[in-house]
Amino acid sequence: MDPKSEICWLAAIAARQDEEAFSALFARYAPRIKGYMMRHGANASTAEEVAQEAMSLVWRKAGMYSPDKGNPSTWIFTIARNLRIDRVRRERVFQPLPEGHNEEASDDEPADIALIREERYAALRQALATLPADQLEIVTLSYMDGLSHSQVAKRLDLPLGTVKSRMRLAYNKLRPMLEGLK
What we know:
By secondary structure, the protein is mainly alpha-helical. The chain has two domains: 89 residues, Rna Polymerase Sigma Factor, Chain: A; 52 residues, Arc Repressor Mutant, subunit A (Orthogonal Bundle), CATH 1.10.10. The chain is 71% helix and 0% strand. The longest helix has 21 residues. It is elongated, with a radius of gyration of 36 Å.
């Protein structure tokens, strides 16, 4: 069959609801759509319903067909395929998990959060590695061991001002490296 005659049939249906043109299209495509549906798992009754519905849409939407977008057969089968997808979505029902499967949510940390946390830790370790040993020791005692500045000063036998000065230098060095982390 020549696609040009099918284009003419669609134009006649769109322009004047030509029943002869529709009858010709119906005779050509309804059995093919039914076969297509059956090959994709539909029973004969469902396949017949989808074919009827598809051809009904062809009748109502013939004016929407554009030869620039493909052959009439492509357009008609796209309508049928979309109807089949819609029907499968409507008919899909909830299916419980098989016996023995726990339906509770996992207590594990979500993968995206774990990844972000690991990236932050890696950036922090890399930034800390750039500090001089005396500044790193003060930051470690303050933040890892939880000591106050005066406790750090006492433990290292340094003046409190020196501890605060080294901490400030460490902050100033770390801030630009860690600014994007949250």
